[in-house]
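4.2 Preliminary Data

To establish feasibility before requesting continued support, the project team ran the inverse folding procedure on a target of 484 residues. The structure was first converted into the token representation described in Section 3, and no sequence information of any kind was made available to the design step. The complete token record follows.
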């Protein structure tokens, strides 16, 4: 009993220490006086009632401040304006605690608090779009800023976070849609598909269950089939949209500049070594058990290639990428049992080659990777591909001119296929992963190859759910243009 009491006392002490840190180390917030960028010349201006900055170095859970201002139209015409936080920086991590609400009796009015947008670099963030104000009218506003307290969530992640910005108004603009919403507007959902045993080349947006970091349901994923207008301009290249992830982020497949260059580098092995089941790993270890090969101590050759490409992106481009999106290298066993001296099949082979039942599930934490990946064989199946069949009408195969995005090159997925064993000395003992065919006899075909064969690599990234579309129609010649 004494031992149990000591453990409880230590736990309480640690909890109190954590709470103490949470309540002490937040950075100051400054909401200073802004300027009407383009509205002043039209006789519309913002007036700060208290003419004071909000600055408080002791922002703790339960903190609340207000800023009162008014917008006055001294011109002779109706005018539309945006309410803007200029040079916003918000590095707070937790969701649903740092929020704002704008209220007015005769202007823009909110009924609920919403999250202040995240921003690691200073940028202008529109809080209200195209508010109408008539001539000789003044609209009075109250801006409330709160940092809610939670008795159940550890808010210590926000220690050292910064929020700063200045209020202002700009001439009204139409509200931009997120990339995910733009996709859903352009393509109504065709619902779920019941069969995946034959090639599917109908251009449509379908639904599937998606999973989160803990392997449980995270929402509905919307994925493309056929050859839709799903082109995106990002990081100086063109991409095809694979799907909207369950968390609202948008998954993209590298397509190069639109010609036969939809891959990075040159033909290369997935892994230089091949005669051990561990070599199917995006990252891997070697050993005599399934748990051992999931150790992820080593990087595959394909992983290193994409990692080097990712590291070369600018910090601005990386800020568009959702670091919580999962890229799954499923190493569950589908048929047979794990062995370094016997043939067996990974779950992906059983699902796609035998049963034709793709999934987005990623139940084992060691199989989940972040920031970047490759397309999975399951995603190829959702997109209309079938193991052992050609599909030259699928977006993942086609380039801007209707040919192969990778020319005659086959390309790697990140999905293990099976381990073939004959003997410890045989060159026919090998690990394999799924691949997709280029132009030639097997266009768009889902198949498999030994990991030491040379194929090309097509990066996959997921853009944050907050990414907005500033233009473009999604065609190859007019891809969607983006902003944060």
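Position-by-position output of the design step:
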């Amino acid at each position: 009993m004494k031992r149990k009491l000591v453990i409880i006392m230590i736990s309480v002490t640690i909890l109190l220490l954590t709470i103490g840190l949470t309540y002490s180390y937040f950075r100051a917030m400054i909401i200073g006086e802004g300027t009407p960028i383009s509205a002043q010349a039209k006789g519309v201006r913002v007036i700060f009632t208290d003419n004071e900055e909000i600055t408080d170095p002791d922002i703790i859970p339960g903190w609340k401040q207000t800023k009162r201002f008014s917008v006055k139209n001294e011109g002779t015409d109706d005018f539309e304006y945006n309410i803007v936080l200029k040079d916003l920086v918000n590095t707070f991590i937790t969701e649903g605690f740092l929020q704002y609400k704008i209220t007015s009796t005769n202007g823009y009015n909110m009924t609920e608090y919403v999250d202040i947008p995240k921003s690691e670099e200073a940028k202008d963030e529109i809080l209200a779009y195209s508010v109408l104000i008539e001539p000789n009218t003044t609209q009075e506003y109250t801006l409330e800023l709160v940092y809610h307290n939670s008795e159940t969530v550890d808010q210590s992640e926000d220690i050292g976070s910064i929020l700063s910005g200045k209020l202002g108004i700009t001439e009204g603009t139409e509200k931009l849609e997120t990339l995910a919403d733009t996709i859903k507007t352009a393509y109504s959902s065709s619902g779920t598909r019941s069969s995946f045993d034959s090639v599917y080349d109908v251009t449509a947006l379908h639904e599937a269950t998606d999973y989160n970091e803990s392997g449980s349901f995270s929402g509905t994923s919307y994925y493309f089939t056929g050859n839709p207008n799903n082109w995106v301009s990002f990081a100086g290249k063109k991409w095809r949209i694979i799907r909207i992830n369950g968390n609202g982020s948008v998954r993209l497949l590298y397509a190069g500049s639109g010609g036969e260059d939809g891959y990075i580098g040159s033909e290369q092995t997935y892994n230089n070594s091949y005669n051990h089941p561990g070599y199917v790993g995006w990252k891997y270890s070697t050993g005599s058990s399934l748990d051992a090969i999931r150790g992820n101590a080593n990087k595959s050759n394909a992983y290193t290639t994409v990692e080097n490409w990712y590291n070369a992106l600018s910090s601005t481009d990386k800020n568009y990428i959702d670091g919580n999106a999962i890229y799954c290298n499923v190493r569950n066993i589908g048929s047979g049992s794990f062995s370094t001296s016997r043939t067996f099949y990974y779950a992906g082979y059983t699902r796609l080659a035998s049963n034709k039942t793709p999934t987005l599930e990623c139940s084992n934490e060691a199989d989940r990777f972040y920031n970047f990946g490759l397309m999975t064989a399951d995603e190829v199946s959702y997109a209309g591909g079938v193991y052992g069949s050609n599909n030259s009408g699928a977006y993942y195969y086609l380039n801007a001119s209707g040919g192969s995005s990778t020319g005659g090159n086959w390309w790697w997925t990140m999905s293990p296929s099976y381990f073939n064993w004959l003997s410890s000395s045989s060159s026919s003992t090998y690990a394999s992963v799924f691949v997709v065919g280029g132009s030639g006899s097997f266009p768009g075909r889902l198949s498999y190859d030994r990991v030491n064969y040379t194929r090309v690599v097509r990066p996959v990234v997921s853009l944050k759910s907050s990414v907005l579309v500033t233009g473009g129609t999604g065609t190859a010649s007019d891809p969607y243009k983006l902003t944060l």
